[in-house]
Specification:
about 270 residues, Fructose-1,6-Bisphosphatase, Chain A, domain 1, 8-stranded mixed sheet, 5-stranded mixed sheet, globular
Length: about 270
């Protein structure tokens, strides 16, 4: 893929993440006035802020790169012809956002025929910008970042879960992790926790069902920071929630064995 075009894509993604983040922060400060809808259940929410931020991002990408496909949480898939697909979550962590908590972010990722390609995650309340492009390394506010050394006990593990998986399966996963002596935490946004794996703040992140727009940017960050990720389905599979796991290199095999994602039909 043309390197100049890739540089232009990354530059625009960074600019859009900041612009969308600034707009999101404005909404965050007056969130009591937002119109909020429930999608699947009481913690699966969408607000007018989510939709406006995604529209801002998608309109700019469509103008600059009309041949690229786009997949976003709120507006679905638009077809492209370049082989490059943008994967967008305008506010990952809508529930924390609406409850006045800082754990939300703008996530702009992209993939191509070789897999995850571009990742930009911006946490406006924290003013932290994570940026990566395949083969170019990963940064936090311009400084290089690297995943932790060591194994699964070298730090805290991030965990995500939702109603797409039976509660007893999630409970068993947590039991198995705790029996193995693993310390874990959950913090609002899965995309942000994946970025923290890349930054060496978490030893890994695991979630039994996650959407592509929640993980694509984080996957690029982790790969470029020296970690490992569980491959996300491509092609039509990009549209379907799938198991997600990203870790420092030394934690991957053991976490993969403990979580055993994909080992049974309900997992």
């Amino acid at each position: 893929m043309h390197s100049d075009m890739n540089a232009e894509r990354l530059k625009l993604a960074v600019d859009l993440a900041r612009r969308a983040g600034d707009l999101g922060l404005d909404y965050f400060r007056r969130r009591d006035a937002l119109v909020v809808e429930t999608k699947r259940h009481v913690t699966d929410l969408v607000s007018e802020a989510d939709r406006e931020l995604e529209t801002l991002i998608r309109t700019a990408l469509d103008k600059a790169f009309p041949d690229d496909a786009q997949l976003g949480e709120e507006h679905g898939l638009s077809e492209g012809h370049s082989g490059f697909t943008w994967v967008i979550d305008p506010i990952d962590g809508t529930a924390p956002f609406l409850n006045g908590l800082p754990g939300w972010c703008v996530s702009i990722g992209a993939c191509d025929s070789d897999g995850p390609a571009l990742g930009v995650i911006y946490a406006p309340v924290l003013d932290e910008l994570f940026v990566a492009f395949r083969g170019k390394g990963a940064t936090l506010n311009g400084a290089p970042i690297q995943a932790l050394g060591g194994d699964l006990r070298a730090g805290l593990l991030g965990i995500g879960a939702n109603d797409r998986v039976a509660s007893e399966r999630v409970g068993q996963m947590l039991t198995d992790l705790m029996d193995a002596g693993v310390g874990w935490m959950r913090y609002g946004s899965g995309a942000l926790m994946l970025a923290w794996v890349a930054a060496g703040r978490l030893v890994g992140y695991a979630e039994p069902r996650m959407n592509a727009w929640d993980c694509m940017a984080g996957y690029v960050l982790i790969n470029e920071a020296g970690g490992r990720v569980l491959p996300f389905p491509d092609g039509p599979g990009l549209l379907v929630p799938a198991p997600v796991m990203g870790t420092c290199a030394g934690a991957y095999d053991e976490l993969h064995e403990i979580c055993a994602f994909g080992s049974t039909p309900d997992w």
